[in-house]
Structures are given as C-alpha cells and as structure tokens.
Write a structure and sequence with these properties.
about 55% helix; alpha+beta
C-alpha cells in the first residue's frame, strides 16, 4: 500500500508525517491516485517534499517513529542519535514513575522508623536519578531501532 510521506512545514527538525489512505479513498481513487488526492487535499507545498512510498519501505514501526527522517526523495530512515534521545526520554518517564512509587515506600519506611530500609531506598533513589546519564554508553552501542526500542536498563532495586 502506498502512503503519503511529507516533512512538516512548520517544523525545522525534519519530523515527518505519514498519511495512510483510507479504504474508501483507495476505492475511489485507486492506490496511486489516493496518495495524489491526499497530497492535493492537504495543500502540501514542494518544500514539504511530499512523496508516495510503499508502506513496506518504512523503517521499524515501534515507539521511536519520531526519529524517522527523509533520505533522498523516497527513502525514510531512522535517525539513530534522535532515536537514542527518544529512548532516554522513555527511560526518564519510567524512572519518574519508579521515583514516585519509591516516595510511597520511603514514607512507609519512615513511618515504621526502619533505618535499614530508609538507607536502601535513598541508595535506590539516587541510582534512579543517575540512570539517564548512566545508560548513554549502553545506548551508543545499539545500532538498530528495533534493538534500541526493545532494550531495557537494569533498574535499581
């Protein structure tokens, strides 16, 4: 199936939009005509570099799609430095949730006046805060978006 790919005009980062024609548009205009119809309907300009490409030619389709960039007129690739930054943001989000949960654990340990548990939680919280910086060497070694998306840090306990 052909999809419409274009660079967002108001966005200088090179972020892409991918538009999948609906079945009714394909039925009305045909596979190639559907992409042309969408391009005209969206009023895309030449600077947005619109192109119809096969959906099978899109790169890895996981959580790191915001790292997709154009390479040439019809190719879409993954910008791995951007994908690593996105993965770091995902780790931070998960880390923040874990820090919030450890707040509750810390409160319980303080309520029970448990010095050993308080010390363990302080160490865990420090390791969680340091995690985004500490994972960068690991992320730099990963060469594909699918491996990067599947990778998980060793979470402190």
């Amino acid at each position: 199936m052909k999809v419409l790919v274009y660079t967002r005009a108001a966005d200088s980062s090179g972020d892409l939009s991918i538009v999948y024609p609906s079945e009714s548009i394909i039925a009305q205009y045909g596979p190639t005509g559907a992409v042309d119809h969408l391009e005209a309907k969206l009023s895309l300009t030449a600077t947005m570099n619109p192109a119809g490409i096969e959906s099978d030619d899109l790169p890895y389709k996981g959580r790191l799609r915001n790292a997709w960039r154009r390479q040439g007129p019809n190719a879409v690739v993954v910008d791995m430095p951007e994908a690593r930054a996105l993965k770091t943001d995902l780790v931070r989000k998960d880390r923040d949730h874990r820090l919030n949960e450890s707040d509750k654990e810390m409160q319980r340990a303080q309520d029970k006046n448990n010095p050993a548990e308080i010390a363990r939680l302080k160490s865990k919280r420090e390791a969680l805060r340091d995690l985004p910086a500490n994972i960068q060497a690991d992320l730099a070694q990963i060469q594909t978006a699918s491996e990067l998306d599947a990778w998980e840090p060793t979470w402190p306990t």
